[in-house]
């Protein structure tokens, strides 16, 4: 082998991959515990942690256990926790009144966490599906999802959450006009510091399946959510939705699901330059866990790689069921 000066490649990109030290030095994006929002499921009772079959490692917790979990999350450095209630079927009605009951499960959990762990930010979900007898995010009349009547209910729900101590309101319902209506009501009720993280670009996705099991909505849901959630074939529409929600008063925006929609995350971040989040949803979590449990992939590595992808795509943070596991891994535990 001769080494003629003219024979070397013009660019040896492998040079900056030659060792761990050099790779660390040139890495553009990193995942940190600051990037994590942890979605959790709340149920009734005392001292209960009940596994969700389709989400290995995820449990539904009673309010006391949620407060304990929030303590552990905060001790790991996780900044925010996001609450989803598993509502008893007997509380699901046509008018969804349990949604704005100050004493509902979600609002009780907010108060318990605020008291036990004041430093963690509490995010909520605003949509009628946990309380709706037919499993939809909005009121259903003659098979149609009503927009404006639903927005009125969502406003009451959001104000009850703010009154309970929520820091970040997360409307996930995809009705038109809800961000402006909620913002106005929050201002009027003395909650001008309560933030809105809009589920602005939320797609009608098959990846929500395990979540609907976790909150007990799969049995109730009649039909699909395609008349309000986005068509997976669209991306310009996502930008219109984000722009509209920002105009109406959203402080932060979300793309959901995550991994199949990284192009949307990138377009949103490039166009608007606002705090942008992705939701790595239940089906994404379930796929990684199922493959890992079968020994088909290295679960820990896939977890970190999947989350780093969101950072590379421009996200400021990720809602992920992996939050405690990845926080522990990042802390070297
Ligand atoms: C309901 C809601 C859903 C999720 C969050 N809020 C499900 C749906 O729209 O049917 C999904 C989260 C997940 O799959 O992890 N408003």
TrEMBL record:
<dbReference type="InterPro" id="IPR013785">
    <property type="entry name" value="Aldolase_TIM"/>
</dbReference>
<comment type="pathway">
    <text>Porphyrin-containing compound metabolism; protoporphyrin-IX biosynthesis; coproporphyrinogen-III from 5-aminolevulinate: step 1/4.</text>
</comment>
<protein>
    <recommendedName>
        <fullName>Delta-aminolevulinic acid dehydratase</fullName>
        <ecNumber>4.2.1.24</ecNumber>
    </recommendedName>
</protein>
<feature type="active site" description="Schiff-base intermediate with substrate">
    <location>
        <position position="256"/>
    </location>
</feature>
<dbReference type="GO" id="GO:0004655">
    <property type="term" value="F:porphobilinogen synthase activity"/>
</dbReference>
<dbReference type="Pfam" id="PF00490">
    <property type="entry name" value="ALAD"/>
</dbReference>
<keyword id="KW-0350">Heme biosynthesis</keyword>
<comment type="subunit">
    <text>Homooctamer.</text>
</comment>
<dbReference type="GO" id="GO:0006782">
    <property type="term" value="P:protoporphyrinogen IX biosynthetic process"/>
</dbReference>
<feature type="active site" description="Schiff-base intermediate with substrate">
    <location>
        <position position="202"/>
    </location>
</feature>
<comment type="similarity">
    <text>Belongs to the ALAD family.</text>
</comment>
<keyword id="KW-0627">Porphyrin biosynthesis</keyword>
<dbReference type="InterPro" id="IPR001731">
    <property type="entry name" value="ALAD"/>
</dbReference>
<keyword id="KW-0456">Lyase</keyword>
<dbReference type="GO" id="GO:0008270">
    <property type="term" value="F:zinc ion binding"/>
</dbReference>
<dbReference type="GO" id="GO:0005829">
    <property type="term" value="C:cytosol"/>
</dbReference>
<dbReference type="InterPro" id="IPR030656">
    <property type="entry name" value="ALAD_AS"/>
</dbReference>
């Amino acid at each position: 082998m001769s080494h003629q000066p003219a024979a070397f490649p013009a660019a040896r990109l492998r040079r900056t991959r030659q060792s761990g030290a050099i790779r660390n030095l040139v890495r553009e994006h990193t995942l940190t515990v600051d990037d994590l929002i942890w979605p959790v499921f709340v149920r009734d009772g005392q001292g209960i942690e009940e596994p969700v079959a389709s989400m290995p490692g995820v449990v539904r917790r009673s309010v006391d256990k949620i407060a304990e979990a929030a303590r552990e999350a905060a001790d790991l450095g996780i900044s925010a926790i996001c609450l989803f209630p598993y509502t008893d079927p007997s509380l699901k009605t046509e008018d969804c009144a349990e949604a704005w009951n100050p004493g509902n499960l979600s609002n009780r959990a907010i108060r318990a966490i605020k008291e036990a762990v004041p430093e963690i930010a509490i995010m909520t979900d605003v949509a009628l599906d946990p309380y709706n007898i037919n499993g939809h995010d909005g009121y259903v009349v003659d098979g149609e999802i009503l927009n404006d009547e639903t927005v009125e209910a969502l406003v009451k729900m959001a104000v009850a959450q703010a009154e309970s101590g929520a820091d970040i309101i997360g409307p996930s319902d995809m009705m038109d006009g809800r961000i402006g209506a909620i913002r106005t009501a929050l201002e009027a009720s003395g909650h001008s510091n309560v933030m809105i993280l809009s589920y602005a670009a939320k797609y009608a996705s098959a990846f929500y399946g395990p979540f609907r099991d976790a909150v007990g909505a799969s049995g109730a849901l009649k039909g699909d959510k395609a008349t309000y959630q986005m068509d997976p074939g669209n991306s310009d529409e996502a930008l219109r939705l984000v722009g509209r929600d920002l105009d109406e008063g959203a402080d932060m925006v979300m793309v959901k699901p995550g991994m199949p929609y990284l192009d949307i995350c990138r377009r949103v971040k490039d166009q608007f330059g606002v705090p942008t989040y992705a939701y790595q949803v239940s089906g994404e979590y379930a796929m990684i866990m199922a493959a890992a449990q079968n020994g088909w992939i290295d679960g820990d590595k896939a977890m970190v790689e999947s989350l780093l992808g969101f950072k590379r795509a421009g996200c400021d943070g990720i809602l992920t069921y992996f939050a405690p596991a990845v926080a522990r891994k990042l802390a070297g535990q």
